[in-house]
């Protein structure tokens, strides 16, 4: 059996909120607001996300847990589905969560 080694480099930059540009700040604020609407009775892990679309609109989503895990909706999925509902197939410019 042949063994392959994979290497991945991850670069991380940590900045304070005030160092973010206005769009990044708005996405994080909106994600925090919509997070309050999350329904997470099982994991108790509430997630909110804001997606900036190519139409310059912000689309928000939160996680919704159900008794069957296969029907649980992820926050990112919810926001992207909402964007596609409005715009049809489109590009994501930025995401804040």
- Low-confidence residue ranges: none
Determine the strand fraction and express it as a percent band: 15-25%
* Count of β-strands: 3
Could you spell the SSE succession in H and E letters?
A: HEEHE
Structural class: alpha+beta
The radius of gyration over CA amounts to 17 Å
Output mean pLDDT. 93
Helix fraction bin:
25-40%
Supply the number of helical segments.
2
- The gross shape turns out to be globular
- Beginning-to-end CA distance, first to last residue: 41 Å
Largest sheet: 3 strands, antiparallel
Major sheet: arrangement of strands: 2-1-3
What does this structure look like?
By secondary structure, the protein is an alpha+beta fold. Helices cover 28% and strands 16% of the residues. The chain contains two helices and three strands, in the order αββαβ. It has helices at residues 22-35, 75-87, and strands at 48-53, 58-62, 92-96. The chain has a three-stranded antiparallel beta sheet with strand order 2-1-3. β1 and β2 form a beta hairpin. It is globular. The model has no long low-confidence stretch (mean pLDDT 93).
